[in-house]
Amino acid sequence: MSYISSCANCGKGEEGSISLKSCTACKMVKYCNRECQIAHRPQHKKECRKRAAELHDEELFKQPPPDEDCPICMMRLPTLGLGKTYLACCGKSICNGCVHAFRRRITKRKDDVCPFCRIPMPTSDEETIKRYEKRIEMNDAQAIHNMGVYYSKGLYGFPQDYDKALELYNKAVQLGCSTAHNNIGNAYHRGSGVEINMKKAQHHYELAAMGGVAQARHNLGIIEGLTGNRDRALRHLMIAISSGYDESLKKVKFMYEKGYATKDYYKKALESYQAYLDEIKSEQRDKAAAANDSFKYIG
Predict the structure, then answer these.
(1) CA-based radius of gyration for the chain
(2) Of 82-86, 103-107, 111-115, 198-202, the least confident
(3) CA count, 13 A, side-chain hemisphere, 220
(4) What sign does the CA torsion over 136, 137, 138, 139 have?
(5) Tens-place pLDDT, residues 203-261
């Protein structure tokens, strides 16, 4: 693909004080000013939209960034929240295997401390919320997001307040929390505190998916499937499966049984999900899952 180094409208190149600016949508052509861009728009519009869509998909369908590691065992953290615990004392997310292993060693209440920073665990929801408030003052994106969840669901003494939840989600988004994008997408999808708007929902799901949120990637797969775009649906679902989202695996199985996906696709989905399980598996995590044991700590 060739890229024009002179103004696509008038043909002038960069010289002296003239600095050409690329079309922000397609990046293929340049203009010397706004007037030239507007004049050239009728000729360029079709090609621009096509290339912009290609660039968007290149970003959208990239494999998500790798999940962070547990700061104690240094293994990949489980993608879904049930496999890890957020601790507001230090702002760390720790796998429940390490939580379980640490708690098995506790014999007295005074020994009940954070396995990472060793600060005593809170003894009440009020004390925990105070710690959250301190983390929020430090612009901890995860703490801000979690507080949004509590307002959204009316948990831990907070009134159910969708407006406050969205305010917190938007703040968390600005600090780089992709999960907050997914929750904003859910709000527009369900009409929680806002008018239902599927275009905005999909926009936020896409931003969340590009940030590695498996649930958002699954949601995109469902949306594409409902509109008949089965190839795009499968691409999204396969990425979600590689991040351990079992609902996406169930959906691919359903598509295979209905003839919408090939046997090879389903086989790859099973292999991808198993590879994820192998990567996060450990003996102490298995013990934690069997005991269903974690800190009595909101997060």
Answers:
(1) 24
(2) 103-107
(3) 30
(4) positive
(5) 999 999 999 999 999 999 999 999 999 999 999 999 999 999 999 999 999 999 999 99
Q: Is the dihedral of CA 72, 78, 79, 81 positive or negative?
A: negative
> In the numeric block, which tokens belong to residue 191?
């009409």
Residue 127: both structure tokens together: 């004390």
Tokens 């069997």 correspond to: 290
pLDDT band at 298 (very low <50, low <70, confident <90, very high): very low
The residues facing 92 across adjacent strands are 87
List Cβ neighbours of 117 (8 Å cut-off, separation of 6 or more). 87, 89, 90, 92
- % residues pLDDT > 90 (the chain): 73
Buried b (16+ CB within 10 A) or exposed e, 144-178: bbbbbbbbbeeeeebeebeebbbebbebbbeeebb
Residue carrying the six token digits 């728009």:
41
Q: How far apart are CA 211 and CA 109, in angstroms?
A: 39
Nearest to 280 by CA among 103, 63, 114, 98: 98
Q: For residues 84 and 252, give the distance between their C-alpha atoms in angstroms, rounded to a whole number.
A: 26
DSSP state of 81: G
Q: Give the span between the Cα atoms of 56 and 50, in whole angstroms.
A: 10
Q: Which of 102-111, 124-133, 177-186, 289-298 holds the top average pLDDT?
A: 177-186
pLDDT digits (tens, 9 = 90+) for 129-144: 999 999 999 999 999 9
Mean pLDDT of all residues in the chain?
Answer: 90
CA distance 3 to 26: 10
pLDDT at residue 156 greater than cutoff 50: yes
Q: Could you tell me the domains of the chain?
A: 1-59 (no CATH), 81-291 (1.25.40.10)
